[in-house]
Design a protein that fits this description.
By secondary structure, the protein is α+β, with helices and mostly antiparallel strands. It has 5 helices and 6 strands, in the order E-E-E-E-H-E-H-E-H-H-H.
Length: about 170
């Protein structure tokens, strides 16, 4: 499963977020990564956002701008009536998808992939727990060793460049 950070859309298999998207796809890195649940307008949007509020699922409504032109100019409708992208945190996606399935007029593209999404959420939870279990002293030690290794690499590059320029000067002297 890949993710487009700009479009906020999940991609399953080899599919792209939508036609024309040329953004780089990447893996989901955090549980709270914002992911598009669906695009809805009018009464469906009001119904869905009401259900998300009642279920205490955080969400954000983002304007969908076809080809860089605002919806109000294209459709002539007020923004409240035009299509809006409903974005939820990745960790809340299964619960939000369940609510979305109750609205028959909205297409649920996430429902067939719930097993894969739940496995990814479980992996991210385990990763977060493993990071929290690390001893603070060990974490500090690793940071210090990493900084010293970086400084050693910089010194090696500087001294190596100095030696190389000295050798090249010796060839022409």
């Amino acid at each position: 499963m890949k993710y487009c950070k700009v479009c906020k859309k999940l991609c399953f298999g080899e599919s792209l977020p939508f036609d024309g998207c040329k953004h780089k796809l990447r893996e989901i890195e955090e549980l709270n990564e914002p992911v598009r649940l669906c695009i809805a307008g009018g009464t469906e949007r009001a119904l869905l956002t009401g259900m998300l509020k009642d279920a205490n699922i955080p969400y954000v409504e983002e304007n969908v701008q076809p080809q860089g032109v605002s919806n109000e100019i294209v459709t002539g409708y007020d923004v409240k009536l035009s299509n809006i992208s409903v974005v939820v945190p990745f960790s809340a996606l299964p619960k939000a998808s369940e609510l979305l399935s109750t609205i028959e007029t909205l297409q649920n593209e996430i429902d067939p992939h719930l097993d894969e999404i739940n496995a990814e959420i479980k992996r991210l939870h385990e990763q977060k727990e493993a990071a929290q279990k690390m001893n603070p002293a060990l974490r500090t030690t690793i940071k210090v060793i990493t900084a010293l290794a970086f400084l050693a690499l910089v010194a090696l590059a500087v001294f190596g460049t100095d030696a190389l320029t000295g050798w090249i000067k010796g060839l022409f002297h």
